[in-house]
Amino acid sequence: MIAALLRRDLGKFFPFAGGGAALPVVFFVAVAMLYPFAVGPDANLLSRTGGGVVWIAALLAAILPLEKLVAEDIEIGTFDQLRLRGITEETMMAVRLLAHWLSFGPPLVLAAFPAAALLNLDGPTLHLLLIGLLVGTPGLAAIGLMIAALTASLRAGAALSGLLLVPLALPILIFGAGALARQDAASLGFVAAISLLLVAIAPFAAGAAIRAAREV
Amino acid sequence: MQAPASSTLCANALACRRGDRLLFRALSFELTGGEALHVTGANGTGKTTLIRVLAGLTTPYAGDVVREGMVGLLDERPALDPDRPLGKALAFWTHIDERIDARIDGGHDAAQAQRALGLEPLMEVPVRYLSTGQRKRAGLAALIGRGAGIWLLDEPLSGLDAAAIEQVTALIAGHVSGGGIALIASHQALEIDGLRSLELGDYVPSKRTGHTESAPA
Q1: What does the domain layout of chain A look like in residue ranges?
Q2: Does residue A95 surpass a pLDDT of 90?
Q3: Residue B99's closest chain A neighbor by CA?
Q4: CA A96 to chain centroid
Q5: What is the pLDDT of residues A76-94, one digit of tens each?
Q6: Which of A4, A19, A76 sits opposite B95 (nearest CB)?
Q7: CB within 8 Å: B92 and A4
């Protein structure tokens, strides 16, 4: 049953799987491509600041899928029908979290290779960047899911979710990008810890938000 | 479509409100297998709210609901992915139902329901291109495929043509005579044997006394 749910969710959100949700990855690479044009081709400057730019791009890319993440299924009644079949909102949201992360986390990690080449990042920096994105994107996905569920019944939900995600994602950005500046892998432990906490609470918070949206 | 297990649906002194307004109060009824109830009432009297409370999706302001047996809900939102072809959207629910209840022979039951409702020519059409009536019939096909004992139907006949109304009425009557429960909120007249009716207007508080009602436990 969980496999069936996951397959549907992935079909909806995975890049190039018909849903056409490749936008975050394209956006991510586009930022990395535009940055050298904006600051000039100084290889030294690019490799010093490039890692931070990649992190900002990842954070902004995480905002893009939020609009469709939860609101559409509330609107067409999918969550109600699943509830009637005895599936809890927490299960639905845990599956949705996994599908959301799979559809933007690993693609961003892969897209970090061309981004690193465009920004002249050296080997050790790329190494830290890849690990950082791998442990940081689940946290971004969890924040995104909670916000999407909370704002799903609001009319300006899409615009609001972008604004809400930015401050909540700051700790991940600080430790993730900080690891690059100091070449210090220990900061990534903090990123992993924050991600773990967010992933653990996201299904419950988002599930409660879905239930609350019904009572309006 | 196997015979649903024996089921009951009971409402005890239900009261519901929307915002500050009390929609209805002291609403009680009991339905057992083989019974059907037609809920009528003007727009805004709370038919949809009643159905969502009976389904357990929202909590009533006061009173409680007793359900024995699986509940199937058909409302104006058929829960079919707008971007996918109808066949695939329906197959998702068949798949889920098969996982939940091993008795359901999804492939066979679902195909039979889809044929009965004339959906076969539409299987390749994305759900977003379907008309209101076609979508309604697709939702009903998904409901039948579940084998739920209790059917809660919110305006099942709206948007249907004369032939489809006949088909849907016959399907509901078949479900009831097979031992199932049907609760139908509709403005249209229904021709089902033994159909009881309930006018929500009779339960509207005479004055706007919403604020003085005792709070739910």
Answers
A1: 2-214
A2: yes
A3: A1
A4: 12
A5: 999 999 999 889 999 999 9
A6: A4
A7: yes
Phi first, then psi, for residue B84 (nearest 5°) are: -100, 155
Q: How confident is the model at residue B5 (pLDDT cuts 50, 70, 90)?
A: low
Q: Which residues of A touch B77 (CB under 8 A)?
A: 75-77, 80
Number of H helices, E strands in chain B: 5, 8
pLDDT above 70 (res A19): no
Q: What is the ipTM of this complex?
A: 0.85
pLDDT surpasses 80 at B213? no
Rounded to a whole number of angstroms, the distance from the CA of B96 to the nearest CA of chain A is 6
Q: Give me the residue label for tokens 């972008």.
A: A162
| Nearest partner of B80 among B40, B132, B39, judged by Cα | B132
The CA distance from B70 to B79, in Å, is 18
- How far off is chain A from B79, nearest CA to CA, in Å? 5
DSSP assignment of B21-58 equals EEEEEEEEEEEETT-EEEEE--TTSSHHHHHHHHHTSS
Name the residue in chain B with its Cα closest to that of A89. Answer: B57
AA identity, residue A49: T
As a whole number of angstroms, the distance between CA B199 and CA B29 comes to: 12
